[in-house]
Design a protein that fits this description.
This protein is of the alpha+beta class. It has 14 helices and twelve strands. It has two domains: 135 residues; 181 residues, no CATH class. Helix 2 runs antiparallel to helix 9, helix 3 crosses helix 4 and helix 3 packs across helix 5.
Length: 341
């Protein structure tokens, strides 16, 4: 499997590796990530646990309203207090004190652990013993000065929704299927013939592309009012859906985010087939999915192959088949950003 940050050892890639690849037995890592973002404008670098407890518990309480399954364990005293707060059976002070006492027991230690090891750059230092809190590092301040920091809250939220949905469905991971609604640009799944909307597709895809156009590496945003708003594009064009083409065109494996120019600009892709160089990039992006925890990895495995060799062989087959139908190939006329995957 490719290492997510090997070609791009940047602060934003390290942050995204925590969100996308950190092991999840509870959703606390997502709540902590969102809380850090909430507190990024505070005047000093020491965050007391009591101050951290307010946004941390708020995010968990909000998600419990949407989805009661926020951990793989069958019980949690901390989550029970959050549930009591939601039902007006616990006060704000009780919630904050319980969060301070129980909510951070494991997540602070585990936050920077990805695939069994600590990432090279830390975003905070644990100072619970010395100062009853955590100390934000310069890495986190620098991260939030970057243009693409505007996308990070929505990327965390999207990943959280995917994970909690998988837990709530209580379906074996190899049977989980994330589907794409082309009109609403949203990922959804089904349970007992009931549709469950999960998360906007742009928010979920953007992190795996490191905030860049899949084709030219120009900066893209997931904010609807941004002039850099990314477009959901079908790598193998959507027009193949009604042709003798074997691939599931609306599958997660075939969806990428592209800038406006590459998607439908004067020299855009439209219904042309991306070149073999771009096909290799799609393979690598899909391997990013497959090295992540469910449900996106299981969805891709179900759609184009269980093993890396299976997936590569299937993509080459699709490309050969698509070329016979589409005739014309395409790649961007210029690269507008630094290659990141």
């Amino acid at each position: 499997m490719p290492v997510f940050y090997e070609n791009d050892p940047s602060l934003q890639s390290y942050w995204r590796s925590i969100v996308l690849y950190g092991k999840n037995v509870a959703s606390y890592k997502f709540a902590l990530a969102k809380s850090l973002i909430d507190l990024k404008g505070q005047p000093n670098d020491l965050i007391k646990l009591e101050d951290l407890a307010a946004p941390f518990s708020k995010h968990l309480c909000e998600h419990l309203k949407h989805n009661d399954k926020q951990a793989t364990s069958s019980s949690s005293s901390f989550l029970n207090t959050c549930r009591k707060f939601n039902s007006n059976e616990a006060s704000m002070d009780e919630l904050i004190q319980t969060t301070k006492r129980l909510g951070f027991n494991n997540v602070i230690d585990a936050f920077h652990i990805v695939n069994g090891g600590e990432i090279p750059k830390r975003f905070f230092i644990d100072e619970r013993r010395e100062n009853d809190g955590i100390r934000i590092t310069e890495n986190f301040f620098e991260l939030n000065e970057l243009q693409e920091s505007e996308n990070l809250p929505r990327e965390v939220e999207a990943r959280w929704r995917l994970v909690e949905t998988a837990w709530d469905l209580n379906i074996p991971t190899n049977l989980i299927k994330v589907k794409y609604d082309n009109e609403r640009e949203i990922f959804y799944t089904d349970k007992s013939n009931r549709r469950i909307d999960v998360t906007p597709s742009k928010d979920a895809l953007n992190g795996y592309q490191k905030g860049k156009c899949f084709f030219c590496f120009d900066y893209i945003s997931v904010l609807s009012n941004s002039p850099n708003l990314g477009h959901v594009d079908h790598f193998f064009p959507h027009t193949l859906k009604d042709k003798p083409f074997d691939g599931y065109v609306d599958g997660v494996w075939n969806l990428v985010l592209a800038c406006r120019s590459c998607n439908n600009g004067a020299n855009g892709k439209f219904a042309k087939l991306p070149t073999d160089n771009l096909l290799a990039r799609l393979y690598k992006r899909n391997e990013f999915f497959c090295s992540s925890h469910h449900p996106l990895n299981e969805t891709v495995r179900n759609q184009i192959g269980v093993s890396p060799n299976d997936r590569l062989s299937k993509l080459k087959h699709y490309s050969k088949q698509a070329l016979e139908i589409l005739t014309h190939t395409w790649e961007p006329q210029e690269i507008r950003g630094e290659e990141v995957f």
